[in-house]
Design brief:
alpha+beta, Alpha-Beta Plaits, 9-stranded mixed sheet, 4-stranded antiparallel sheet, about 30% strand, elongated, binds uracil
Length: about 240
């Protein structure tokens, strides 16, 4: 695959921009500046540097972000900065079928929710993770305003009715981890679901943090606002 096409596929801009980066000597492979845009490389596992920053070729991008509070999961946020501004430009620009699309959040978290957010340009993966049919568990650490009692947990497990749907929604698991700390597992993702479920049992969410999706735990080394690529192991844990 030509070097300019490799860069293009990884989100470094139009082919013309990518050719320009290469001709200016800003792209290095194996420690050597490559100035010929049409030079061929095997993209599989290719490591390269663009303007001094190390990159790895990935057919599809899968990243985990520690979402900080006060950020919106929308590309066009209304009030708070977008989580997409926490990612480098190439991740936001990866082309898809010719159009510049970039990675997309796998489901949204509210602006005040923190924790594990996945982003990818793999549409099938997004669908699989979000579809209630696949029952992918999402674990939330909920800080409640009022002390928790076992009857609230039982009601969340039995199912509560939210205002937009007569069918009850249930927690897949529910553990009272402290007087004001509930660990709630959901396998679907309705709008404000945790907040509305807690309100339905007479409590109120004061803090919300997503700690796990499937078998993938938020990597402890990621500070709020930091991201990293998912490893093959992480992906296997998610697809399990
Ligand atoms: N449920 C909510 O209420 N908010 C979130 O951000 C995620 C789940």
């Amino acid at each position: 695959m030509q070097l300019q096409d490799i860069l293009y596929s990884q989100g470094f801009g139009t082919r013309r921009i990518c050719a320009g980066l290469i001709q200016q000597g800003l792209v290095m492979v194996d420690g050597q500046a490559r100035r010929e845009p049409a030079e061929d490389f095997d993209p599989a596992d290719l490591q390269f540097q663009v303007q001094g920053r190390a990159w790895h070729f990935y057919e599809k991008a899968y990243v985990v972000l520690h979402k900080p509070a006060g950020t919106e999961c929308s590309q066009k946020p209304s009030t708070y900065p977008s989580v997409y501004t926490l990612l480098p430009a190439p991740l936001r620009q990866r082309p898809q079928k010719g159009a510049v699309q970039g990675v997309q959040a796998v489901g949204r978290l509210d602006q005040d929710t923190t924790g594990l957010l996945l982003l990818t340009d793999d549409g099938q993966f997004i669908h699989r993770m979000n579809s209630p049919r696949h029952h992918v568990p999402k674990v939330y650490e909920v800080t409640t305003k009022h002390p928790l009692d076992p009857s609230q947990a039982s009601r969340l497990m039995a199912g509560v009715v939210l205002d937009d749907d007569p069918r009850p929604v249930r927690a897949a698991a529910c553990e009272i981890a402290g007087e004001h700390h509930l660990r709630l597992t959901l396998t679907e993702g309705k709008y404000h679901q945790v907040k509305r479920m807690l309100a339905a049992v007479g409590n109120r969410v004061e803090g919300l943090h997503r700690s796990r999706i499937g078998e993938l735990v938020l990597p402890p080394e990621l500070e709020p606002g930091q991201w990293r690529w998912l490893s093959a192991q992480d992906l296997a844990a998610l697809r399990a």
